[in-house]
Design goal:
Length: 169
Amino acid sequence: MPFIRTFMFLAVAVLISAPRPIENRHPALLRSADQLHSIVGEWQSDTTSGISARSSCGWSPQHGGVLCEQRITTPGSSSRALDLFVPDTTNGAFVLYVVSHPGSELAPVPFTIRGHEWVYGGTKADPDGVYYRTVNDFSNIDSYDWRQETSKNGKDWTVGIHGHVRLIK
């Protein structure tokens, strides 16, 4: 009988101390992660400058971020990348990490979500004095448009290359 009592005590202790899902530990993180819902799904881009991409994006197991696996096709080859979209709880924005080559250093790409637009970069000038940013516009539920923009002052933007991505699953 003492063995069973000890076993039950240990089992309850383990259950009580087991890590709780992220929504129980960090409700603010969960709410901000929910803003990433627009990218969840399987996407196919159009071909722009000979390059296209197919992306499969899904929630992380505890709903703290979105992981996308991409297959990028160019006229002569194809490659793969993993993208991780997560909230940055220090400032209310978001961060994108791209793993394009195994073993490469991860450089965080900060971005903001304002309504249906996701804006990556554009907050400071590059060494050439030009501001660069990418905008994803999720105005439609089954597709999004993207565009790269440049600015000399960080306020007035000129659209460069752009494209369309459609939801296929």
